[in-house]
Structure formats: C-alpha cells, structure tokens
Amino acid sequence: MVKLTIDLIARGTSGYTKKKRDESMQHYLKRLTHLYLEDRCIDEVGEDLSMCRNLTVLYLYDNQLLRIPTLHHNQHLTMLYLQNNDIHKIENLSPLTRLTKLYLGGNCITVIEGLDKLENLQELHIENQRMPPGEKLLFDPRTMRAISSSLQVLNIAGNNLDSIRDIECLRNLYQLHANDNLLTDMKELAHVIGGMFRLWRLDLMGNPLCHKAKYRDRVIVMAKNIDVLDGKEISETSRRFLHNWHDAREVQKKRREENLRKGSGEFGDGALLRELPPVKDHPRPPHKIPGYMMPGLMMKGEKKHDQKLSLICCRLLCICR
C-alpha cells in the first residue's frame, strides 16, 4: 500500500528538473511539467499532486490504482498514462479539457464513457481490458459522439468485440487497432471503415474474419486510403490493381442488373412479347353444317319456310283433283 507523497513526487522527476538549493518545494512542484511515477506500487493519489499546477504529462502506469485519481487541479494535462492498474470505471476526467492522449490499456474497464468534455482528445488506448468471462467492451453513444470530431487513434484490441458498429461515427480516425477480437462480419466492416476516409492504418489480425477468402484484398478495396494493414505496408501497385479490378467488377455487376431490370420491366409492359417468335394465325375452318339430321328436326329459321311450302303443295294437289 503506497500513497503518493511530496517526497515520491520529487523523486519522480527527470534530471532536467531537479530542485534548486534555494528553491522552495512549493515553487519547485509548481514548475514541474512531467512526472514519472510508473511502477511504484501506488494505490492512492492524495492531494499533494494538486500542487503540480503546470503538469502536462503524467506517467502512472504499472501501479495498483483502483480508480482514476481526481486531477481537477491539473488542468494543463495533455497526456495521461494509466495502463496496467485495477481501474474499473472511466471517471474524474471532465476537468482535463486539454487532454489529447489517454492510455487505459490493461485495466478492468467494461464501458467507454465519461469522456464527454474531452473535445481535444486525439488518442484513446483502451486495449486488453480484464473483463469477466463472456463480457465485452461497450461504447456509450454520447461519449462516442463527443469525441468523434477530434479522435484520430483508437486502440480497442483484445476486448471480445464481435461488432464495431458503435464506432461508426468516428470518421476522422487515422489509425484503428481492433486486433484479437471476435469480428466475423465483412459487410459490417466495409460499412464502418468505408466512411473513415482518413484511415491509413488498420490492424485486424486475430479476428475470425481474417480467415475468409481474399481477406486482405477485400479490406484494401474497402479502405481506399489505407497504407498499412496488419503491420504490412500496401504498395501503390497492389492498391491500384485491386481498385481497378473492383471497379471493373462493379461495372459488370451494374450491367447485369440493368439488363435484368430491363427484361423484367418490358415483360411487365407486354413489350417483351415483341421479342418472342411471331405466332401464325391459321385460317379458321368454314362453319360446317351437320352432315346428318334427324327426320323432322329443322334448323333454326327454316321452320316457317317449310310450312309455307307444305301449304302450296296441298293447294296444288287439290287443284289437280
């Protein structure tokens, strides 16, 4: 159990900022800009750190801190290193509006939150959190929106992530480290990184999707400006070839879709019938009169005519007699 004291602070400076003989401790602490307090078994940061008003860089990694210390008197901080402690929650950072780099890897954090006021944050490193089995790192939407315009580097490696849809709003990223997770969906990956037009480095090794066919080629096509994928540089020749191949495939696909659409549309309008072989109109056979009629059975319209003939015949017979 080690608590941070003035004596420990004084021993955590570089050789360039040693205390002068006639200098007061208060004045000395006030002019410090960098403190190197890593690997000191510190589990509590007291009020003495508040005397370092001009502190810009603070190294507190590899200690035993259970929470992020209160640093509201250190508002000039631009870099904060808190890796490999036992921190469970992101808190007490709102006063640090000038913070540009935040290192929280190797802790026990389960939610990225509490960064709403850090509008100048450029790098967030929160890799390899020690979480309970079955849990994964979560993203608070309000926090992600707040840092979306400034964040350039995000390290979320080794956090059991099966989706990165929650970081879709981070369109100004230059580097994304998402290796050693559980990502499988190539379509989601294309949707997310396709909108990150400034992205030049991407790390995805250790995810299941890396085993899919033509993984590297497909990712290069997705992220058009990427220069480094999984630690390997992409040559301009390879990039140009893959993009040309992809564009050619897209043209062919659009043509096929257009042809199919035209075909289905014409069929619906009846126009497709014009393309079918013409059907010949065979002449209809003339109306046939039945070749056999029962005696006394007359065709319609012939009954009155036969009656008149019978009367004429009867009269003639009478005259002849």
What would you say about this model in short?
This protein is of the alpha/beta class and 321 residues long. 27% of the residues lie in helices and 12% in strands. The protein contains 7 helices and 14 strands.
How would you portray this structure in words?
- By secondary structure, the protein is an alpha/beta fold.
- It contains 7 helices and 14 strands.
- It has helices at 6-10, 25-30, 141-147, 186-193, 215-222, 236-269, 303-320; strands at 2-4, 34-36, 42-45, 57-59, 79-81, 101-103, 111-112, 123-125, 138-139, 153-155, 175-177, 201-203, 228-229, 232-233.
- It has a 10-stranded mixed beta sheet with strand order 2-4-5-6-8-10-11-12-13-14, covered by helices on one side.
- The radius of gyration is 43 Å and the shape is elongated.
- 24% of the residues are buried.
Low-confidence stretches: 265-282, 286-303
Strand order of the largest sheet: 2-4-5-6-8-10-11-12-13-14
Head-to-tail CA distance between termini: 157 Å
Helix content: 25-40%
Please identify the oligomeric state: single chain
Tell me the strand percentage band.
5-15%
User: Which structural class fits the helix and strand makeup?
Assistant: alpha/beta
Number of helices: 7
Q: What Rg do the Cα atoms give?
A: 43 Å
**Average pLDDT for all residues:** 84
Q: Describe the main β-sheet briefly.
A: 10 strands, mixed
Shape: elongated
H/E topology pattern: EHHEEEEEEEEHEEHEHEEHH
Got a strand count? Answer: 14
